[in-house]
From TrEMBL:
Pfam families: zf-RING_5. It comes from Amphimedon queenslandica (Sponge). GO terms for biological process: homologous chromosome pairing at meiosis; protein sumoylation; reciprocal meiotic recombination. This is RING-type domain-containing protein. PROSITE patterns: ZF_RING_2.
Amino acid sequence: MSSDWVHCNKCMSRPSANVRLALASCGHLVCRPCTNGSTDSCPVCLMKCAFVALVHPLPPPIVIYFQDPLSVAQRLAQIYQFQEDNRIRLFESFFVKANDHLTQLDNRIEALKIERQCLEQEIRQASNNH
Ligand SMILES: [Zn+2]
Ligand SMILES: [Zn+2]
């Protein structure tokens, strides 16, 4: 976790062994002394808030806010690529099936053309014999 930016939004203290921070549901980071014992209002914006202490392991809903954005972006790119690769495989299988079907239709058309030529020849021969 890159934490060069983490500080109490009220007194600007940085986290240390003596300074424990909490994340308020309004989005402000505050140290314990700045909360003044309050557990339901933010000392920065005075909104009614719930607090989550910043201790390891961070709860899943807030852990992403403390991850390196570049790593998260790379992970998102991997997810995108994985889904896109699967989308392409599916599309390719549709394409192959459609192409097979077209080839079958072309072959059928060729067979019908030959059949027509034969029938036309039979008709010509039949009318020449009369
Ligand atoms: Zn503070
Ligand atoms: Zn606040």
